[in-house]
Design a protein that fits this description.
six-stranded parallel β-sheet; 8% strand; elongated; binds adenosine-5'-triphosphate
Length: 400
Amino acid sequence: MKIGVYGGTFDPPHLGHMAAARGAAERLGLDKLLLIPAGLPPHKALSGCSAPAEDRLRMTGIMADRLGLSIPVQVLSLETGREGKSYTSDTLRHVTAMYPEDELWLLMGTDMFLSFHRWHEPEVIAALAGLCVFGREAGDGPERFAAQRERLERDCNARVQVVNLPDLVEVSSTQVREALSQGGGRQWLDESVWGYILGHRLYGTQADLKHLTLEELRADSAAMVRAKRIPHIRGTEETAAHLARLWGADELLARQAAILHDCTKYFDLQQQLSTCEKYGILLDETEKTTLPLLHAKSASGIARTVFGMPEAVCQAICWHTTGRADMTLLEKILYIADYAEPNRRYAWAEELRQLIETDLDAAVLRGLEITIEHTAATGGKLHPRTVEARDWLLAHRKEA
Ligand code: ATP
């Protein structure tokens, strides 16, 4: 197996890192990529506005997921967890012990490559891994690396491969940190990494979480979920906004509810329960033990307490999984937008997409029936509130 090892301070990880990781993985034909945020890099004094190692690890985790590579990408905390200075030679010894049969390639940009001979134990590094070097600026062609390449091949017996990045992004973390502290920087960051930075007020950012713009709220919520869920959240938002315009609800509230409705989807049972406790969300016995029901409750707590959302939004999020008797218009809109958004590929989704245009209550009723049938078919636990919601609509809804 060919394994890429990409280390850096990742303070924060930016689009340049992502382009480099993607380009190197493709050009080297990697089978696996390891991302290793540095602890205390010997060659770089961490500046005053650096992020704590824990945050850099999490942001690197977000980057790993957002790379969208078909090979496994893993973040290792080898260096951030180590006391004192972290040397690449020690890290590579560790990685070699983990993968004794595999071929390692150390990924690095121009600056790292040109100073490589001054690193601690360069010959050990060169013996344990091939060196994959890529440019950071448009002028960094193979001629920029030629002399150093010759020197390292001669003195360290290094194997060097120069990779031409197809999507070079000329930026450094230093530039990004400076821009962030002055209210900019967004254009050099993946949306979710930016959202994480705002949410944790890193690098001197001053976002007031209770007054975020929709763009900021989208990014913050995206930082909490995996990449594969984001199209569904976007689809739900656009469908909810469309329904708000069509059926006379507040479009802003519909968007806010949709953006946050699944933000805790990847919390495990323990995180769900502790979040609900922290934000004073009461749970009944069924909810306490049914993971798929809990994200609606925990997300409503976060919407209210962390993001200061209006109560109508929090309620829509709270009931979006089970529904309830006598739902408000906004609650119905989020409930059915979640089912009918364009990324839903189930056979019944098309039926719902047609119904929402002509009869919202009929669509919600059909959604509730589908939940009841599906839960019975898969042996899941059905919350009685869903049956109450269906029965209420059956008794009260006016035929369109
Ligand atoms: P700082 O500005 O804080 O020094 P940086 O942007 O150089 O940070 P690091 O995390 O130190 O980022 O870099 C990790 C690795 O990624 C290094 O090998 C570096 O050469 C490479 N790299 C950084 N930015 C780019 C970029 N824009 N394009 C290609 N490679 C990059």
